[in-house]
Amino acid sequence: MNNEYRMNTSFIYRIFYVSLISFFLFSCKTQKPADPLAKGVSQKIDSIMSLMTLDEKIGQMTLFTTDWGSTGPTIREGYQDDIRQGRCGALFNSHTTAFTRQLQEIAVKESRLHIPLIFGYDVIHGYKTIFPMPLAESCSWDLAAIENSASVAADEASAAGLHWTYAPMVDISREPRWGRVMEGAGEDTYLGSLIARARVRGFQGENFDHADKIIACIKHYAGYGAPIAGKDYNTVDMSERVFRDTYLPPYKAGVEAGAMSVMTSFNEYDGIPATANKFLLQTVLRNELGFKGFVVTDYTGINEMVNHGYARDLSHAGELAVNAGVDMDMQGAVFEQYLKNSVEGARVTEKTIDASVRRILEAKFALGLFKDPYRYCNAEREKTVIFSAANLEAARDMARKSIVLLKNEKSTLPLPKKMHSIALVGPLADAKSQMLGAWSGAGDGESCISVKEALTERAAKNGFKLNYVKGCEIEGDVTKGFTNAVMAARNSDVVIAVVGESKEMSGEASARSDLSLPGVQEQMIKELVATGTPVIVVLMNGRPLTIPWIAEHARAILEAWWLGTEAGPAIGDVLFGDYNPSAKLTMTFPRSMGQIPIYYNYKNTGRPYDPNSKWTSKYLDGPNAPLYPFGYGMSYSTFKYDSMQIARTEFSMKDSLLISVKVTNTSEKEGEEIVQLYVRDLVGSVTRPVKELKGFEKIKLPSGQQKIVNFKLTAKDLAFYTADMKFEAEPGKFWIMIGPDSEHLQKREVNLIK
Ligand code: BGC
Questions:
Q1: Rounded to the nearest 5°, which phi and psi values hold at 91?
Q2: What are the backbone dihedrals phi and psi of residue 449, each rounded to the nearest 5 degrees, phi first?
Q3: Read out DSSP for 321-374?
C-alpha cells in the first residue's frame, strides 16, 4: 500500500467517523443518556477510540483546573487552547452554566473529535446552599438526611453545569490534629461505611436521566486519614490488617454503592505512594472490590512522587502512576507532557492507555454528554434550583440534626421563650462567612445567617433584649473587649458565648498541634463565668477540641461545628427548644493533647488500665478517659434503658442472634435517641478491640412512651481479618453491649459455635 493511498483512505475513514461522532452528539437530544454498560455503548466507544491519536487519548486522561477558585498553584495557563487541541478531557473549578457552556462549546465545536468535557468541583457539603460540614452531619447518624444533603448538593451543582464532585471523603480518622477530619464521617468504620454509601447514593442517585445527579468520587484512596502526628500529607504507616479492618471498609461501601470514580491520596501506603500503589489500585480496588469506574489522582499527586523519593523524575512518575492503574492526572500535566514519550519508548503500552480512555469515555456516556453536551447547562434550572426554599429548609433541618448537646447542667437549655435579656458574646456570634466552614463549594458568606441575626429576629418576636458584644477575636491576645463583654453578662439573664476555630483552621493543610480554643477566647469565658451569670457555650469548630475547663464550668455546651447557610436559625431552634437535640459525637473528644490519638475501639493490651496500679497502660499525669466519648450526646429528653434481651446465648455461624432493648422516654418532652449496639470478641486468632459498633437505631419517642429496639447479628457481622488474613468470624465468646454511647453500656455474653 503506497503512502498516498494510505493517507487518502485514512482521511475518508476519519470523515466517516467524525460524522458518526457528530451524529451521536447532536442527533438524539431527547433520548435518555446511555448506560455505560448498555449494548452499543462499547461499540460507540470503539469507534471513537479508533479515530483518536495518542495525543488525543492522553488528552482524555488529563484534568486541569481553570483559574477559578483553585486549591493549589495553577501550573498551567491557556486552558482554552488545551481544550481546542484535545489536550484535556476534563476541567475542574469551572462552574455556572454560562462558564461551563462557554468551555464546552470549545470542546464540542472546535476540537477535532468534538468530545465533550466533564466538569468537576469540590462539592463537599453543598454547592451554594451550604449544609453542615460532613463531620457534623455524621453526628446526626441519620442516613436518610445525609443522603438527602448529598442529593441537594448534586441538584444545585448539576444546575450550575457540574458533572462530577470530589466527594465523599470516606477517610476514617482517629487524628483530630489533622485538619481534614471535618470532611469525613469520624472515627468509626461501621458508621463511616454506611455514611459513605448514603453520600454516594445521594450524589449519583439511580441514574443521570434528569441531569440532576453528579458522579461521586470516593477519596482519598487510601489511608489518608492516618498521617503520622496529624500533619497533612504526612507518611502513613499501618499494617495491612489495620488497613483492611479499619480504613478500607468505607471505600468498599462506596464502590458497592456504585461510585463511578476514585481519587488517589497524597500519602504513601506501605512505602509506596498511593498514586502508584499496585496493591491499592490493582489488587484491592480493581480485583477485590471490582471497581469499574475511573481513577483520578489528587492535585499534582503524580508529580509529588519525585519528592517522595519514589520516582526519578516526572516522566518516571507518570509511568509508575499509569502502570499502577491511574486513569486521569489531576493538574500535574505529567501525562500531558511525558506519556506519549513513555508509550513510544514502550515503557507504557497503548493497551494501558486505551483501558483508561475507555473508562473515562464510559463516564461521559453515562452522563449523557455524547447525546447532549449541554444537558447540564440549563440556565433556567440554575435560577430556580439554587437556594430554593426547599433546599434552605433541608439545610436548616440537617443543621439542627448535627448539633450535639454536650452539657446541660440544671436544665439551662432550652431557654425559656420569655426572657428579659441575653448577652450574646464571642467572635463567632456574628461571623457570617465563618458559618460556611472549610470546603464550602461556591458558598457565599453573605448568604449565611449568623447567630446574632437569628437571635435578633427572635428577640423582636419574643420580646427579650439582646446585648451583643464581640469581646475578642478568634486569634490574638487582645483582651480590651472583655470589659464590655463582662458588663453585658452582668446585665443579662444568661450569656451565650459563640467561640471556636476559624474555618481556615480546618480542611486541607490545616493541622493544629494545640486543640484548645485559640487566642484569648477561653480567658474571656473564664471572666464571663466569674460574673455568676449562667454561661452557655456554643462551639464552632472543625474537629474535636480540648476544652476541659469549659466542660467543667460552662452551664451548657452546644457543639455546633460549622453548620452552613442556615447555621444561625438552626442554633436558635436548639437554644429555644424548637428542636430537641439528638446528635451524638462520631469522634472522641480528648481531654488533653497527650491523649491523641484517642478512639473508642482501642485494644485491651496485656496490662489494661487500672487507676490503682502504676504498671498498667496509662498516663501518670491524667486519666485515660476522654472528655466526651464516641457516641455521646444529650437531649432535652431523658431515656431509660431496660435490661437487654437476647433470644439465646449460643448461636451458630448460620444463625442470627436477636437482641432487643426497651427504651422509655422518661421526660416531659418528645425526643430522639440513638440506641447503639457494640460487640467485643473476647478471644481471637488476632487481638480484637474492646468494643466495636455493629448497629444503631435512631428512635423518636413522645413523652412517657417506650419502644422495643431490635437488632439482629449474624456471624458475618462478627467477621474480621483473622491470623491468616481470611475475612471470617471465629467461634468463641462475645460480649454484646447496648447503650446510649460507647461508655455507658450494659453487656451480655454469648457464644458463637461452628
Ligand atoms: C485535595 C482534594 C481535592 C482537590 C481538588 C486537593 O488538594 O486534596 O481533596 O479534591 O485538591 O480541589
A1: -130, 155
A2: -105, 120
A3: HHHHT--BEES--HIIIIIHHHHHTTSS-HHHHHHHHHHHHHHHHHTTTTT-TT
Give yes or no for a contact between 482 and 471, defined as CB atoms under 8 angstroms apart: yes
Same domain assignment for residues 101 and 200: yes
> Which residue segment(s) compose the domain that 708 sits in?
639-753
Q: Return the exposure string of 619-644: e unless at least 16 CB atoms fall within 10 Å of the residue's CB, then b.
A: eeeeeeebbbbbbbbbbbbebebeeb
Q: Is the peptide bond before 250 cis (omega within 30 degrees of 0)?
A: no
Q: Is 420 exposed, middle or buried (0-12, 13-18, 19+ CB in 10 A)?
A: exposed
List of residues 6+ apart from 572 with CB closer than 8 A: 451, 454, 455, 457, 458, 578
> Position 170: which residue type?
V
Q: Are 377 and 108 in contact (CB under 8 A)?
A: no
Closest CA to 131 of 391, 429, 445: 391
DSSP 43-103: HHHHHHHHH--HHHHHHHTEEEE-SSS-SS------HHHHHHTT--SEEES--SHHHHHHH
> In this structure, are 362 and 338 located in the same domain?
yes
* Domain harbouring 650, CATH code: 2.60.40.10
- For residue 425, which amino acid is it? V
Torsion angle (degrees, nearest 10) of CA 3, 6, 7, 9: 160
- Chain-centroid distance of CA 7 in Å reads 52
Atom number of ligand 1 nearest to Cα 166: 10
pLDDT computed for residue 19 by the predictor: 46
CA distance 361 to 714: 41
- For range 153-174, the mean pLDDT: 98
User: Of all residues in the chain, what percent carry a pLDDT higher than 70?
Assistant: 94
User: How many residues belong to the chain?
Assistant: 754
For residue 217, give the ligand 1 atom closest to its CA: 10
Q: Are residues 669 and 739 in the same domain?
A: yes
pLDDT digits (tens, 9 = 90+) for 21-49: 444 444 333 334 445 456 789 999 999 99
Active site residue 298: yes
In a domain, 15, yes or no: yes
CB 536 within 8 A of CB 407: no
Which is nearest to 224 in space by CA: 213, 211, 237, 215?
A: 237
Cα→Cα distances 163→196, 438, 735, Å? 19, 22, 46
Type of residue found at 489: A
**Tens digit of pLDDT for each residue in 621-652?**
999 999 999 999 999 999 999 999 998 999 99
Q: How far apart are CA 274 and CA 180, in angstroms?
A: 18
**Cβ(636)–Cβ(414) below 8 Å:** yes
Q: Is the dihedral of CA 599, 601, 606, 609 positive or negative?
A: positive
267 falls within a domain: no
Domain count, the chain: 3
- Among protein residues, the one with the nearest Cα to ligand 1's atom 6 is 299
> Rounded to the nearest whole angstrom, what is the distance from the C-alpha of residue 126 to the centroid of ligand 1?
16
Show the cell assigned to 295: 481513577
> Do 291 and 256 meet the contact criterion of CB atoms below 8 Å apart?
no
Question: How many A from CA of 299 to the centre of ligand 1?
Answer: 6
Question: Ligand 1 centre and the CA of 35: distance in Å?
Answer: 28
- Spot the catalytic one: 298, 372, 430, 681: 298
Q: Name the DSSP letter for residue 278.
A: H
Segment holding 465, helix H or strand E: strand 465-469
